[in-house]
Design a protein that fits this description.
heterodimer; A: mainly alpha; Cytochrome C Oxidase, Chain A; two-stranded antiparallel sheet; two-stranded antiparallel ribbon; 22 helices; 8 strands; 64% helix; globular; B: mainly alpha; Four Helix Bundle (Hemerythrin (Met), subunit A); two-stranded parallel ribbon
């Protein structure tokens, strides 16, 4: 096995692990279903437990084959063992209380919840993300500087280097985007024609029929994409912000590693929800439906709760780093726009994220202990959930898009060779969006039955968001105006992002306006609008950022040809997709449903939407192949490839371990492209 | 870290603040039984919280000038301090959310609870904050013995509070049919006290860590960030209770659960 390529070794182990896991799961499922072999029952080949074990042990063995028993492999082993231990602990307690011991999916619901939580914490112990803190608690010293071994293995274990963590975040984000996209393609295929084709009532998998599976996939598509976006922006911010500031690392490197690694067991928990009976609430998890959905609901809540900590602590780190680790001379109004945007985003994720965690926790407790927060029978109020939930989940969309909009402002001047128009206004607009974003949440609830007098204030506060967003657009257009435009791949994605985000922006006010929203609420118009904002504000800038900073991380550039193929395949497909969604939405197509009436005449549009969905999938696949292929085989690019003024491009690529050999001082404005004699930074070894 | 005031001044200040807090708590209780004036109760809680934030948690230290050398210990401690306060800000949103839930679900009613017990655990927590402040001040002036003594008292009081809520108050309430599943009042009561008790428990763990390391001589007058962090966290738990106590015990009309 030593001579086999590690990836191949991993894949072989994956197959072995998946088969073994499936067998073990099948056996356990049979044991429990048959009352420990007392009654004859059939083997349940499509039951939840074999599927879940197959996933967990397969993934563990994959990493074992890839890097051996260390880092993430150890973490996953600990998570599996921790989950079982936690589950057995609750089962034991239940035995002493005379309660039922086993549920339809091996454990009972409380056992799965505690097991899931213990498993996630065990992962962190196993991977080594808390080792240094444990030493501190014991009063033992830890080394201040952390040196990674060369080679790809460092990406599979705990590293304190923000550049390694940035790459880890980005790669996991890409992985989750692929998973979430795959889910979308599956249910998009079902939607291609009216009537049910393959997700029918006779379909049976993981204790769900076709319609339930549709609901689970649709719900998980939402949340997995959200987590992947949170990881994606964290990847960009982690890699780039300390470089822009001239810092050696983040303010709290251990917490930085912790923030990344806690997202991994969270992703496992989210995926586990699909196996444990799924759930049918959509990503919002509204009670009362979520109060009686299958066990998968709890795994979903737990996964989001754990992932939330990644976002909270990551945001904390970005704020502290930006406030405390700036280079000499970098006063607030000489900070790069991306730093401003990252701070604005982090302020939201630091604070508001607690509210989605709390709202989900309250439903979890309602299910576990009968605490009737949202149960009208006990005096509870389901609308309270929506307030708590949207207090995060609306500002969350600004968490998703602000870094992306920052990337656009950051890259645009480089490719048009002109100063950024209205720097101060753009800098403040990010904070403006973040602050206004805290006051708009109830526009998601115009039809919820909340107090009517709340509608109009929330309508106006929502429309107010257009003002700071308009500032950004004005700045971008004025920056492009009469510039010497170059269009390598990153610039294409910047321009694409601007146009797509404009579409998202323009389709927003109809949803914010009470009178039109009463018609548009819960239709495909909302789905189209939302995808426009997120593609324009996150996906396009995210790809732009990867194409742009890839040479900084690897010393090689991604293929321009395939980058352009990616862009020209994805962009038109995406336009057709969202415009088509908005069209049928206006005509009355409800969102979140597996089937629609053929007489409504949506069949042809839905078919087109499915085709464009697949084309976007192909374009992202091209990107991912390009990404991994270029790491080793890309054209060498060690200098200032884009002719940027930014400090990270003034030193050779790939970035050295300690970032800047010589510290720099900020001596001018950041975006004065094309002004003779102007400079932004001066390194200590320069005259 | 600069300590412009000498130790006895700070200690005296700690006593004074403690007296203020005690008087305000008594006043609060009196307002609740005599006038049921909610704005006044909120005001008293805000004043109490402000006193703890300023004099025990030293929020002004965030503004302290810690030099321009980013590699110095003072600068790193300043960064740590900022990180801790950001974390507390984040954590405050959990408790704020619980408060919103309480107002939304219970409005101007409250669960029927044992007032003596409520006042007793509140007093215990306030006294623990007083000793925590003495312990931290002692360490900041290199007095290891004073630190160990005061922090040990804090720990004992912390455990007393925790047991008072979880092992006395909870069974008492559930004996009077206020259980998590009995209705929304029970749900809110157990959730708020439970979330707070969870934070008390983590605070207790931090106290044990700094006591153990303090006894082994890990901390000095110059270098004791862990002590400061544990102390600030402990006071934060106290601040949360300063708001939770009136919200659960004093504001609104008590609901008697039917037998």
């Amino acid at each position: 096995m030593k001579n086999v390529h590690p990836v191949l070794r991993g894949l072989l182990m994956l197959v072995v692990g998946a088969l073994v896991g499936y067998g073990v799961g099948l056996f356990l499922d049979y044991a429990v279903q048959s009352g420990f072999f007392a009654n004859a029952t059939e083997l349940r080949f499509n039951a939840p437990v074999p599927g879940l074990f197959s996933l967990l042990i397969g993934a563990t063995m994959f990493f074992f084959g890839l890097v051996g028993y260390r880092g993430v492999t150890r973490g996953l082993v600990f998570q599996v063992v921790g989950t079982l231990a936690g589950g057995l602990l609750v089962t034991g307690i239940r035995a002493s209380m005379g309660l039922s011991l086993w549920g339809g999916f091996l454990f009972t619901e409380p056992a799965w919840v505690l097991g899931g939580l213990v498993g996630a914490l065990a992962f962190l112990v196993g991977v080594g993300a808390v080792t240094d803190w444990w030493k501190w608690a014991l009063g033992e010293p830890t080394s201040e500087h952390h040196h990674d071994e060369p080679g790809f293995e460092k990406y599979f274990g705990v590293s304190l280097d923000h550049k390694v963590i940035g790459v880890q975040y980005t790669v996991v984000a890409l992985l989750l985007i692929s998973v979430g996209g795959l889910f979308a393609l599956i249910f998009r295929t079902e939607l291609a024609a009216s009537q049910l084709q393959f997700l029918t009532t006779s379909f049976k998998l993981f204790d769900q029929n076709g319609l339930q599976m549709y609901n689970s996939l649709m719900s998980l598509h939402g949340m997995i994409m959200i987590v992947s976006i949170l990881l994606g922006i964290a990847g960009i911010m982690n890699y780039v912000v300390p470089l822009l500031l001239g810092a050696q690392d983040m303010a709290f490197p251990r917490m930085n590693a912790f923030s990344f690694w806690i997202a991994v067991p969270a992703a496992v928990l989210l995926l586990a929800s699909l196996f444990l009976g799924g759930f049918d609430t959509g990503w919002t998890g509204y009670p009362p439906l979520s109060a009686r959905a299958p066990v998968g609901m709890q795994m979903f809540f737990l996964g989001v709760f754990v992932a939330g900590w990644s976002s909270i602590l990551g945001g904390l780190n970005i704020i502290a780093t930006s406030l405390r680790m700036r280079a000499r001379g970098m006063i607030a109004f000489r900070m790069p726009i991306l730093v401003w945007a990252s701070v604005a985003t982090s302020l939201i994720s630091l604070t508001a994220t607690q509210l989605i965690g709390l709202s989900f926790q309250l439903v979890m407790f309602q299910r576990l202990f009968g605490m009737g927060f949202f149960d009208p029978d006990k005096g509870g109020n389901p609308v309270l959930f929506q307030h708590l939930f949207w207090f995060y989940s609306h500002p969350a969309v600004y968490v998703f898009v602000l870094p992306g909009l920052g990337v656009i402002s950051e890259l645009l001047p480089v490719f048009v060779r002109k100063p950024l128009f209205g720097y101060k206004w753009v800098a403040m607009s990010s904070l403006g969006i973040a602050l206004v974003g805290f006051m708009v949440w109830a526009h998601h609830m115009f039809t919820s039955g909340m107090n009517e007098y709340l509608r109009v204030p929330f309508m106006y506060s929502t429309l107010l968001v257009a003002v700071p967003t308009g500032v950004k657009f004005f700045s971008w257009v004025a920056t492009i105006w009469k510039g010497k435009i170059r269009t390598p791949t990153p610039m294409l994605f910047v321009l694409g992002g601007i146009v797509v985000f404009l579409m998202g922006g323009l389709s927003g006010p109809p949803n914010a306006t009470v009178s039109t929203d009463l018609h548009l609420h819960d239709t495909y118009f909302i789905v189209g609008h939302f995808h426009d904002t997120i593609f324009g504000g996150f996906v396009f800038p995210f790809f732009a950022a990867i194409y742009y900073w890839f040479p900084k991380a690897t010393g090689r550039r991604m293929s321009e040809f395939w980058g352009k193929v990616h862009f020209w395949l994805m962009t038109p497909s995406f336009f057709i997709l969202t415009l088509g969604m908005m069209r049928i939405g206006l005509l009355g197509m409800r969102r979140r449903i597996a089937d629609y009436d053929p007489t409504m005449g949506f069949d042809f549009t839905h078919l087109i939407l499915t085709v464009t969905g697949y084309l976007i999938g192909v374009s992202v696949l091209i990107f991912i192949i390009n990404f991994f292929h270029s790491m080793k085989n890309g054209e060498k690019a060690e200098g200032n490839l884009w002719e940027s003024r930014s400090p990270e491009w003034l030193v050779p690529s790939p970035m050295p371990l300690e970032n800047y050999e010589h510290e720099f001082e900020v001596v001018g404005e950041p975006y004065d492209y094309g002004l003779a004699g102007s400079r932004y930074v001066k390194f200590a070894n320069e005259k | 870290m600069s300590h412009t005031q000498d130790k006895s001044t700070i200690m005296r200040q700690g006593v004074l603040i403690f007296i203020y807090l005690g008087v305000l708590t008594a006043l609060e209780f009196f307002i609740a039984i005599a006038f049921e004036n909610v704005p006044l109760l909120v005001l008293v809680a805000l004043v109490k919280g402000g006193l703890v934030l300023y004099y025990y948690m030293h929020v002004y230290r965030l503004n302290e000038n810690d030099g321009s050398d980013p590699h110095s210990l003072a600068y790193k401690t300043g960064t740590n301090r900022l990180g801790l306060w950001l974390f507390l800000l984040s954590d405050a949103f959990v408790f704020g959310g619980l408060m919103v839930a309480r107002v939304n679900l219970l409005g101007m009613t409250r669960p029927h609870l044992n007032q003596t017990l409520g006042l007793a655990v509140t007093a215990v927590l306030l006294i623990s904050s007083f000793f925590m402040n003495r312990g931290e001040t002692a360490m900041a002036h290199g007095d290891r013995k004073g630190f160990l003594l005061n922090t040990s008292i804090t720990l004992v009081l912390a455990l007393a509070f925790l047991l008072g809520v979880v092992a006395v108050e909870w069974p008492t309430a559930s004996h009077e049919r206020l259980t998590p599943a009995s209705g929304v009042a029970g749900a809110v009561f157990y959730m708020m006290t439970g979330m707070h008790a969870f934070h008390v428990l983590t605070g207790v763990l931090f106290l044990i860590v700094i006591l153990r390391n303090g006894a082994r001589g890990v901390y000095t007058a110059e270098k004791h960030w862990a002590v400061e962090a544990a102390a600030v966290y402990w006071h934060f738990v106290d601040v949360v209770w300063i708001f939770f106590y009136p919200a659960l015990y004093l504001i609104g009309a008590a609901i008697q659960l039917a037998a």
